[in-house]
């Protein structure tokens, strides 16, 4: 509709800078809500569908068919259980985000935060133990080292759970504190608990102790494995090719955790650190990047089962002999009928 003005008057014009800000601000402020409503449910749903099957098959194979357990099987079994328990919480989380359901049970909130972050950091520690096991096996092919015993592996696995629980315990207290300020009904993620004092300090400590230190240990083990293979190249060439597999597995795990975990830890700390020091649109952009990084970090639960088939402990042959071949035989019988 045009302006009706007396002759000699020009229509009013708003300041172009103000108009641009007014147009852009609502869009950037809505982006986090849109990501939570559409991106998070989609990603969490896919991760559950893909990861739950793989980890369930792994656990089934270990429980039903593996007769002689080795130390590495203990570590991988704990890793698969941790991943599967975490993945089973994703359908409800995806449903809550899709329905924009802010109100939730405080018990579910507390247990979910514990399971989520325990899985996040225990996965990295169990992969460190797996890499250590492969390194020691190269040095002691006849498995006469005490660290290669199953009893030792069980003890180290229990110690891992205790260590991660101690690391995550402060988060439980922070979650309870935040729930109190939200009338025990709204469950906010780690980075959004604005009422919690010293949260950035705790997040930085957890980043160093739970992520950077284990990642450096993985890198060190890959370096040591490469050194052993290089100095004893002739001897290993005369053995099975599985002796060359540990280096590729460890390097792949380092790359996986570096690519998946780094964006999450960087954006979590940046998001917490910029609560009160940025404009609304900048804060919304940082929050959006933080939201994007969360499912990426948790994708390790989907990728971890791939490592189980390349550890040199004949697990792949175990699954093929008990699952794939019977299915092939059943298919052949159906065709013949």
Brief sketch in words of this structure:
With 337 residues, this protein is mainly alpha-helical. It has 11 helices and no strands.
- Mean pLDDT across all amino acids: 84
- Fraction of residues in H or I helices: over 70%
CATH superfamily: Rhodopsin 7-helix transmembrane proteins
Let me know the number of strands: 0
- Residue stretches low in confidence (pLDDT < 50, at least 5 long) are 1-11, 16-24
Strand content bin:
under 5%
Tally the structural domains.
1
Q: What would you call the structural class?
A: mainly alpha
Reading off the top of the CATH hierarchy, the class is best stated as Mainly Alpha
Task: Identify the overall geometry.
Answer: globular
What report would you give on this structure?
The chain is an all-alpha fold and about 325 residues long. It has one domain: Rhodopsin 7-helix transmembrane proteins (Rhopdopsin 7-helix transmembrane proteins, Up-down Bundle), CATH 1.20.1070. It is about 75% helix and about 0% strand. Helix 1 (about 15-65) crosses helix 2 and helix 4 packs antiparallel against helix 8. The longest helix has about 50 residues, at about 15-65. Residues about 1-10 and about 15-25 have low confidence and may be disordered.
